[in-house]
Write a structure and sequence with these properties.
- The complex is a heterodimer of chains A (338) and B (395).
- With 338 residues, chain A is an alpha/beta fold.
- In chain A, 38% of the residues lie in helices and 15% in strands.
- Chain A has helices spanning 6-15, 25-32, 58-71, 87-92, 107-112, 154-165, 178-186, 197-204, 234-253, 260-266, 269-275, 281-285, 291-298, 302-309; strands at residues 35-39, 48-49, 55-56, 77-81, 115-117, 122-124, 126-131, 145-150, 170-175, 192-196, 213-215, 223-225, 228-230.
- In chain A, the strands form five sheets. A five-stranded mixed beta sheet of chain A has the order 9-8-10-7-11, with helices on both faces. Chain A has a two-stranded parallel sheet with strand order 1-4. A two-stranded antiparallel ribbon of chain A has the order 2-3.
- Chain A starts with 5 loop residues before the first helix and ends in a 29-residue tail after the last helix.
- Chain B has helices at 3-11, 19-51, 82-115, 120-133, 138-152, 185-212, 219-236, 261-287, 291-299, 304-334, 346-358, 361-390, and strands at residues 160-162, 166-169, 172-175, 177-180, 241-244, 247-248, 253-254, 257-259.
- In chain B, 66% of the residues lie in helices and 7% in strands.
- Chain B starts with a helix and ends in a 5-residue tail after the last helix.
- Chain B has three domains: 21-54; 82-176 and 259-390, Orthogonal Bundle (MetI-like fold), CATH 1.10.3720.10; 178-244.
- Chain B has 395 residues and is of the alpha+beta class.
- At the A-B interface, helix 1, helix 4, helix 5, helix 6 and strand 9 of A face helix 2, helix 5 and helix 11 of B.
């Protein structure tokens, strides 16, 4: 008759479990030997996997740069494709360590989601894609149009603002992924597809007949896209932030993946600091001194990454525009590494 | 009196060996354990979210939403609050569920009876329908109907027109919107009176049949009361009703009521899928009625219609209702797949866009789950009530 109450055991066992820990992403990544990176579900130029499962893109290069800096190997990345609705939860819950996924930096996201934006790897703006047959020349002529959008984006909000500000009506047709949005547009469900302009160029080449569609000139919003990390882990925040800055600084100094070894041998004061020949910059971040050298050697500088993925050597052929270096009339500007 | 408790206690076993007391103690402990468990996980979540600077609470419901929704049964535009998007999504979910349940029930009934038909072709066609549609995943069927609907229908400028005021194109089915004017309330009252009148008539007819064996004519007079009475009032008042016709603008039709293709596709997929299951439920219910019942009713001289209405269906319903409830619950929950084709249901609007704009996943998912739970419990309660009403009364 001496049975012991199971619930009592369960409760005492439970109370001894403590809450989960917050800091130490760097240690976790080093221990696992792999960086968990949240990327898009397939957006040419930014994050797309080929038939062999190799990921490429401007966003993917941020993952590779961080992996190169932390682990010394740009290939040690586990990519998790996320749609717009899943992305923040995946980062908050620790499923991914860094989220470079075409994510617009806004106040609400910075302040209320428990996340921090580490910088801007692409300055974008929202635009419209219409089929040529409609004969539309400007977004101001879109009164009454049906508009395809992806759910859970700032795009949805900007669209509503723009039409309201111009006293126009529209019908929002909201899809889960960018693939479905394109399908809806192709099937004629909507007259217009709206998204960040970079995405419009990327989605346009996915259409069966890309030449039948045209991107309208209007840019209706500011969309600074950047990598995101969890709030409350400043060491990790710094590493991701400076990995991107290192790529931009490298472009400014003329360091490329091809010439980095030569330049390292020659050595200017600035390149010596960046490449870790002198100064111990890496140690202050908790990394080895050649962290930036590894990024430039394995991933390349920002300009190389841009041209390879979205620029002239890619099918997208997007101009540098706002994403040119500050010295060339653009906005890309990195604080000095010293 | 003072002695008796102590005397009783000596004969009793010790308290911790008393099965009745032990049972209570264990149940209290188990309940306590469950409460502590939930307290622990909720507290854990709250503490961690606060530590990470994630906003919590339901205050966000009052903030302006700022995004558009394509279909809303209540007034809505970008200036309304997130709380309102919840209502819009909820009503859209209820709309597609209720319509789906009605259509699936009718289709299921017809197909279920067809499967029992003595006509070989009809029975085989019904079997083929059931086996095809209940064995293909619902999500695929939704995609199939959506793109089948979209690709088949013409663009807005080449709409299929029916009588100059109905238009069908790949943006939806546009019908004129009835606009009621002053005095239309009387028509509703007349309709109500007609319905009450028919119920009374049916009661009187039944009483008379039990007394004299001769029923009163019910069908035509009822039809007259329900349709005729409001019509007469309507005409007497000078037809206080006008229509808002859809008109082709540059891109789409404006005005009227638009039934969006997402709703059509979702409704089609949900109805057909669930109808296949309901057909089997109906068939099993009818087959559960022993053949002797049919023979006995024939022996009593009941007509075919009377036999079905008075003997077969009431007995079949007892078998049909419980599994039918399951199908209705499934349909309601399956409607959340709407998000895949952009129908603005609760999951798409509230647990999708609103969640992403506010980032308050825990609160929003909790509210969404609570809604599906409530809808399911309501459906079950209604069906259980009906089941109790028609259940076999054992004497």
């Amino acid at each position: 008759m001496k049975k012991f109450s199971l619930p009592v055991v369960a409760v005492t066992g439970l109370l001894s479990v403590s809450g989960l820990s917050n800091a130490g992403t760097l240690e976790d990544v080093k221990k696992n030997g792999v960086l968990q990176c949240g990327v898009g579900t397939g957006l040419p130029g930014f994050s797309i996997a080929d038939e062999k499962g190799n990921w490429t893109g401007l966003d993917v290069d941020v993952c590779r740069a961080v992996a190169a800096a932390v682990l010394g190997d740009a290939t040690k990345v586990k990519y998790t494709p996320l749609n717009a609705k899943e992305r923040f939860t995946a980062l908050q819950s620790g499923e991914v360590d860094v989220l470079p996924r075409n994510t617009t930096w806004t106040l609400t996201r910075d302040a209320s989601l428990g996340l921090n934006f580490t910088g801007v790897n692409y300055y974008d703006g929202q635009g419209f894609l219409v089929s040529k047959g409609l004969g539309v020349k400007s977004a101001k002529e879109l009164d009454g149009a049906a508009v395809c959008i992806q759910a859970g984006t700032t795009t949805e909000l900007n669209l509503a603002d723009y039409f309201r500000a111009n006293g126009m009506k529209y019908q929002p047709v909201v899809f889960d992924t960018s693939d479905q949005t394109v399908k809806g547009f192709e099937a004629g469900r909507c007259d217009v597809l709206t998204s960040d302009q970079s995405q419009l160029y990327a989605l346009r080449i996915k259409l069966a007949k890309p030449d039948d569609a045209v991107v309208l000139p209007e840019v209706i919003s500011k969309e600074p896209l950047g990598p995101v990390v969890r709030q409350g882990d400043d060491a990790w925040f710094n590493i991701v932030k400076w990995s991107l800055f290192a790529m931009i600084d490298a472009e400014e100094q003329g360091l490329t993946s091809a010439n980095v070894d030569d330049m390292k041998a020659k050595g200017t004061p600035a390149s010596n600091r960046l490449l870790g020949v002198e100064g111990g910059m890496g140690a202050t971040l908790g990394l080895s001194d050649d962290w930036a050298y590894q990024i430039i050697k394995q991933v390349g500088n920002y300009g190389e990454s841009f041209e390879r993925n979205v620029g002239q050597s890619s099918p997208l052929k997007i101009e540098r525009g706002l994403n040119a270096l500050w010295t060339k009339g653009g906005l890309q500007y990195a604080p000095p590494i010293r | 009196m003072a002695d008796s408790p102590s005397a009783e206690q000596s004969t009793k076993t010790k308290a911790w060996n008393d099965p009745a007391i032990r049972a209570i103690v264990f149940q209290v402990l188990a309940a306590l354990g469950v409460v502590l468990f939930f307290y622990y996980i909720i507290n854990n979540a709250l503490t961690n979210m606060e530590a990470r600077g994630i906003t919590t609470g339901f205050g966000f419901l009052d903030n302006p939403a700022g995004f558009g929704i394509i279909q809303s049964l209540v007034e809505y535009d970008e200036t309304y609050s997130y709380g309102r998007t919840f209502v819009v999504g909820l009503l859209n979910t209820i709309l597609v569920s209720v319509l789906g349940i009605i259509i699936a029930s009718i289709m299921g009934l017809v197909i279920g009876i067809a499967r029992l038909s003595s006509n070989w072709l009809v029975a085989k066609l019904a079997t083929a329908f059931i086996e095809i549609f209940r064995n293909i995943p619902l999500l695929l069927q939704i995609f199939f109907w959506y793109f089948a609907v979209l690709r088949t229908l013409p663009a807005a400028r080449d709409s299929v027109t029916l009588g100059e005021s109905f238009f069908l194109n790949n943006r939806g089915f546009y019908v004129p919107k009835p606009v009621t004017e002053d005095g239309f309330g009387w028509v509703w009252l007349a309709l109500l009176a007609g319905i009450i009148g028919s119920i009374v008539l049916a009661r009187v007819s039944r009483l008379r049949q039990t007394e004299t064996g001769i029923p009163l004519p019910v069908f035509l007079p009822s039809l007259g009361m329900i349709l005729g009475l409001p019509l007469i009032i309507f005409l007497l008042l000078g037809a206080p009703l006008s229509f808002d016709y859809p008109v082709l603008q540059r891109f789409n039709f404006q005005g009227g009521v638009a039934i969006i293709p997402e709703l059509m596709a979702l409704l089609l997929a949900l109805s057909i899928y669930t109808a296949a299951f309901i057909a089997e439920v109906v068939r099993s219910g009818i087959e559960a009625v022993p053949k002797g019942q049919t023979e006995a009713s024939s022996a009593l001289g009941l007509s075919n219609g009377q036999r079905l209405r008075l003997i077969i269906v009431p007995q079949a319903l007892r078998v049909i209702i419980p599994p039918l409830t399951n199908q209705y619950l499934n349909l309601t929950k399956n409607s959340s797949l709407a998000t895949a084709i952009g129908y603005p249901d609760l999951v798409s609007v509230f647990a999708g866009t609103t969640l992403n704009q506010t980032g308050q996943a825990v609160e929003i998912i909790f509210m969404t789950m609570a809604v599906y739970l409530t809808l399911s419990l309501l459906t079950s309660a209604l069906m259980n009530w009906y089941n109790n009403r028609i259940a076999l009364v054992e004497r």
